[in-house]
Amino acid sequence: MAAGREDGRGREGVAAARERGSGRTVEGMRIVIAGGHGQIALRLERLLAARGDEVVGIIRNAEQGDDLRAAGAEPAVCDLESARVEEVAALLEGADAVVFAAGAGPGSGAARKDTVDRGAAVLVADAAERAGVRRYVVVSSMGADPHHEGDEIFDAYQRAKGEADAYVRGREALDWTILRPGMLTDDAGTGLVRLEASTGRGPVPRDDVAAVLAELLDSPATAGLTLELISGSAPVSVAVKSVAGN
């Protein structure tokens, strides 16, 4: 199934001239990743740094900084649960793109699902607007729905992600892409995926999620798309070009 573009616009962001295979600049992009110490974020940082991008990872604990430096990223300490919009905007100044990869994580309760998985995603979206950064790529969750029913913590997580996605979709000043992976695994990536508006449920290695995110950052024509991701048979670059209409 072809991906559905929600806003009907083929928007071109600041990264348009930097698409790989079509004039990507040697100096690369400056990319800020919120939730920079997450498992997907660290993988993404390694990929982006290796290809020559300048990467900044926002973390809440300074002791996580060495892990980011080892991945090739510059750490920036900021608690997204308590920061003000202007504080986050200052970290985004001069960036070409922002990735939201933060999450409350396993063991957290419903309250933190709301403050991190929803609240922080909204905060970073507002900060990106204030800083003039249009490109915003969000790591969401398959099944995210603001009207998801249920009282379990996972239900709260799906509602929080759904509410964040709905908010981001309404931001006209952002060239957003929302990525909804299936069940995450720590298996080695295969580089073969299924990326569509609706894929059905299935697993996907975190390695491959990071590879898709890197490719989406180089593909401004994916702005306005909400995409599901599972393991499949298409090489990552082919899958992204397909949903971008290339």
From TrEMBL:
Coiled coil: none annotated. It holds the Pfam family NAD_binding_10. Residues 35-220 form the NAD(P)-binding domain. InterPro entries: NAD(P)-bd_dom, NAD(P)-bd_dom_sf. Residues 1-21 are annotated as: Disordered. This is NAD-dependent dehydratase. It comes from Streptomyces minutiscleroticus.
